[in-house]
Design brief:
Oligomer: heterodimer
Strand order of the largest sheet of chain B: 2-1-3-13-6
Organism (chain B): Labrys monachus
Largest interface: A-B, 40 and 38 residues
InterPro entries (chain B): SBP, SBP_1_CS
Protein name (chain B): Multiple sugar transport system substrate-binding protein
Order of helices and strands of chain A: HEEHHHHHHHHHHH
Number of strands of chain B: 14
Pfam families (chain B): SBP_bac_1 (PF01547)
Keywords (chain B): Periplasm, Signal, Sugar transport, Transport
Strand order of the largest sheet of chain A: 1-2
Radius of gyration of chain A: 23 Å
Largest sheet of chain A: 2 strands, antiparallel
């Protein structure tokens, strides 16, 4: 064995272990999704794509698929749009900056499920903080039942999703900003560039790779994020706030259709895989061009 | 998926560990957590049992109700399930049809059988064999706020829905801040809350293998509930209130009535001791029909258990009058043991007496495959009706067709 092979040989055990941990469950889910399976996960006969066909004939599934796209786009784009200015502000040197940073980061330390529970209380129509706040400001006069219908519940859920994704995203951006040398701004200022021009031509291009990372990670994370929707509405009323992962949970563990639930899982896996591959290729090409 | 996947892995890991440490004479029991008293009660019972039966160890796993079905599914598919478990009796058919649970008939002596109130034992009997024992039992009745009723000049709880409607108008006029009818529209048992009305109009969930959701009774009941919503007789936004939420509204005096289980009385004792309330039967329909929902949870013995004899011995111990009385005292459930029912705790309790008197008419979730799915689509239909999406008859008919589809499949 040559010298060159040694590093690969040393990596091999952990590589195999990682592959096993990642691929084995995937193989199992694939198996379940292609079989007729009882509610305890015991495989019966091979059924081909029957589980997938059943899903695409189900209007609730299609609605959940569509809603998942809105949810992901809404939360991820919303988070990016809010996080960039927050990161810029926190990157500036001002009195009390460290306190401000801590405040922004704190929600990250709280479990997502607890955050969702607190929001469920806040959105309560009868005694919720949001209604009493809005009433105090004179904006509304009768209580709004935020979680009683999808048309108010879903936008609120997206809003909560954005709020809880800000700390992580801001942290990535702060890391990015700290790597931008101050000399660039000084030079630009000498050339007569204003704040906006500095942002457009210096900050944004240099932040690009970090926005890419935040985008990919947030898409994957938000797409599959369960607690906010589950805790606030369980996908209800009448499936009107279901996204794929809550729909999957109901299919699998409430109704006991594990075959179809696994099929949903494979579909989300496929979608995210395709998205990631396309995005990584685009981002890499950009880097080469740059 | 991340969260689910992680907890599934975690549970599988935990059960593997439990399995490795199991040895002959160890009985593993999965316990559903009803309240914070559940764990301590079973620990104490297990200790007492072990003291009487040296050589047998009882290992308890206490699981929150919400995660029970998920845990059992995972454990069973991995082959690492406990020897016994508490399950919802409405799930039992699935377990029996897959051959997962063992009939207890060879263990049950006539003496043992005589301990039970037959209404509660019968839901676990399938094809003449007894597959489970009723570990918990409950029924539903109408709680009403006596002070609110008095303010509206009403002295008696309503006996029929017609009376209820007249009373609701008076309550609304006398106390505008109090909604007359606490209506649940979210999460578990949303469908059941609708059945109370449907049963009293003479409907059935399933009759002769067909869904009863398109029956006149179902339509009448849906119209009744919807009219309550439209007239402002319910709390606003019913689809954002689950069972606990509606119960809390009742405890806070914000709704005048709520239909729920005996455990609300024990909650009121600690949470709202000043609340002046009464318990009455659920109002009857035009032809005098009345409905209450009977619920039992069963404790079952898994077929792959290697310690069946020891396990049944523990069951025998759990179902002695003493132990049952203690358990129901802790949890606020109805007695399943006939002797227990004469204990002063139950015999002198006015609230529980009402519940007990309703039992002969109690209906249980039908024993049919696909029941959970039918419950789910029924909840969805009911929510659509409450929200005023689509017309009532069309929604119910479409749901009945879907339910018939599920019923005919298996």
């Amino acid at each position: 064995m040559g010298r060159r092979a040694t590093p690969y040989f040393l990596i091999l055990p952990s590589f195999l272990m990682a592959a096993f941990i990642i691929l084995w469950p995937l193989y199992q889910i694939g198996q379940i999704s292609l079989h007729d399976v009882n509610r305890f996960g015991m495989l019966r006969e091979f059924s081909g794509l029957a589980n997938f066909q059943a899903l695409f004939a189900d209007p609730d599934f299609l609605a959940a698929l569509w809603r998942t796209l809105i949810w992901t786009l809404g939360v991820v784009l919303g988070t990016l749009i809010v996080s960039v200015p927050i990161a810029l502000i926190l990157n500036d040197d001002f009195y009390g900056r460290s306190i401000a940073r801590v405040i922004i980061m704190l929600p990250w330390a709280v479990s997502l499920a607890m955050m969702a529970i607190v929001w469920r209380w806040a959105l309560n129509g009868e005694s919720g903080m949001l209604n009493s706040g809005l009433r105090g400001l004179g904006l509304i006069h009768t209580n709004i039942e935020w979680l009683a219908q999808g048309s108010t519940a879903f936008p609120m859920q997206i809003l909560i999703g954005i709020l809880v994704s800000i700390p992580f995203t801001t942290t990535i951006f702060l890391g990015g900003l700290s790597s931008v040398p101050d000399e660039l701004y000084d030079a630009a200022a000498v050339e007569g560039a204003g704040r906006w021009q500095q942002f457009r031509h210096i900050t944004l291009p240099l932040l690009r790779p970090f926005i890419n990372i935040a985008l990919v990670l947030n898409v994957i994370y938000v797409f599959n994020s369960f607690p906010i929707i589950w805790v606030t509405t369980q996908g209800g009323p009448a499936n009107s706030t279901d996204i794929l992962v809550t729909y999957l949970y109901k299919l699998g563990f409430r109704i006991g259709k594990l075959g179809e639930a696994s099929a949903v899982s494979m579909i989300t896996f496929g979608l995210l895989l395709v998205f990631t591959i396309i995005y990584v290729r685009l981002a890499m090409r950009e880097e080469k061009d740059a | 998926m991340k969260t689910i996947g992680r907890s599934v892995m975690l549970m599988a890991g935990v059960s593997l560990l439990a399995c490795a440490s199991a040895q002959a004479g160890t009985v593993r029991v999965t316990i559903a957590e009803y309240s914070k008293g559940t764990g301590p009660y079973f620990e104490a019972a297990a200790k007492a049992f072990e003291a009487k039966n040296p050589g047998t160890t009882i290992k308890l796993e206490v699981v929150p109700w919400d995660n029970l079905q998920q845990k059992l599914t995972t454990d069973i598919s991995a082959g690492t399930n406990a020897d016994m478990s508490i399950i919802g009796t409405r799930w039992l058919l699935d377990y029996v049809s897959q051959g997962l649970v063992t009939p207890l008939d060879s263990y049950i002596t006539p003496d043992f059988k005589a301990r039970f109130i037959p209404t509660f034992l019968s839901p676990s009997v399938m094809g003449g064999k007894t597959y489970g024992l009723p570990i918990a039992a409950s029924a539903r009745a109408l709680y009403y706020n006596k002070d609110v009723f008095a303010k509206a000049g009403i002295t008696e709880p309503p006996k029929t829905w017609a009376e209820f409607e007249a009373d609701a108008a008076k309550i609304k006029a006398a106390t505008p801040d109090v909604a007359p009818f606490g209506l649940q529209g979210k999460e578990i048992e949303t469908d059941v809350y609708f059945y109370y009305g449907m049963w009293s109009y003479g409907g059935e969930i399933v009759k002769d293998g067909k869904s009863g959701l398109d029956s006149q009774a179902a339509i009448d009941s849906a119209k009744l509930y919807k009219s309550f919503i439209d007239k402002g007789y319910t709390e606003p936004g019913v689809t954002s209130y689950n069972r606990e939420d509606v119960q809390n509204l009742f405890k806070q005096g914000k709704v005048a009535t709520v239909i729920t289980a005996p455990f609300l009385s024990s909650q009121i004792k600690t949470d709202a001791p000043k609340l002046n309330y009464g318990v009455a039967p659920i109002p009857a329909g035009p032809s005098g029909d009345q409905g209450t929902y009977g619920v039992t949870d069963s404790i079952v013995l898994f077929d792959n258990s290697k310690v069946k004899d020891e396990a049944f011995k523990f069951l025998d111990f759990l179902f002695t009058t003493e132990n049952r009385t203690e358990f129901d005292k802790v949890e606020g459930f109805l007695p399943v043991n006939a002797k227990e029912a004469s204990d002063p705790l139950f015999a002198d309790n006015a609230d529980l007496k009402v519940f007990a008197s309703l039992l002969p008419k109690a209906r249980f979730a039908p024993v049919i495959p696909g029941w959970e799915e039918i419950a789910q689509i029924t909840s969805n239909a009911v929510q659509k009706i409450y929200l005023g999406q689509g017309d009532i008859e069309g929604t119910l008919k479409a749901t009945a067709a879907q339910a018939n589809d599920i019923l005919s499949k298996k």
